[in-house]
Specification:
Length: 192
């Protein structure tokens, strides 16, 4: 007589499944913990940002003089780009009407009512309007809680100039993380 292997009981399977879900919820909750540096009197959460809100940014258009430019919020795309929110705004002031958002403006802080929204991070080439993508400050603050690498030194040995050039080459064609012009333009239509 052939004996079949004993299958786990339904109770065992239920407990195993339950423990898996509890573990997943715990892992999610750990990721959802905000940075201890977030202060609602200084910063806006992306969930508080609404279409039509007006603010300003600070940047250097030429030389070393910090200049102010205006921003008007078009909307927030939730969990869209790199699993974080992306705040869309139209910028004005300075040379922006002629040039659009300039690549060197990346990192320019954006404020509404003197509370920081985030930093200008994205621009779209050949756009007729100076539209910018803003990384929310709430996504940047947790980086300040990372361990310091202040005393870390790095060395590298290269045997030729071509090896140095090859090592210094940055590849921006990351699969799945490219801005698709048509898709993004279609998404903008809902904000305009």
């Amino acid at each position: 007589m052939t004996q079949f292997p004993k299958f786990p009981s339904i109770r065992f399977i239920f407990l195993l499944t339950l423990s898996f879900f509890v573990f997943q919820i715990g892992a999610y909750a750990e990721d959802a913990v905000p940075s201890s540096r977030f202060d609602s009197s200084k910063y806006w959460r992306s969930s508080e940002i609404k279409r039509g809100m007006k603010g300003y940014g600070l940047t250097v258009f030429q030389g070393t003089q910090i200049e102010r430019f205006d921003v008007e919020i078009l909307g927030v795309i939730e969990n869209e780009f790199t699993d974080t929110d992306l705040i869309l705004a139209v910028c004005s002031g300075g040379p922006l009407a002629k040039t659009g958002v300039i690549a060197g403006m990346s990192g320019s802080p954006i404020y509404i009512e003197d509370k920081q929204v985030g930093a200008l991070a994205y621009a779209w080439s050949f756009s007729k309007d100076p539209i910018a993508g803003i990384t929310p400050i709430e996504n940047m603050l947790p980086i300040l809680d990372y361990p310091s690498t202040e005393n870390t030194s790095y060395t590298a040995d290269f045997d030729s100039d071509s090896t140095i050039r090859e090592a210094a080459t940055v590849n921006f064609s990351i699969p799945g993380k490219r801005l698709d012009r048509v898709t993004w333009d279609q998404r903008f239509q809902s904000f305009l």
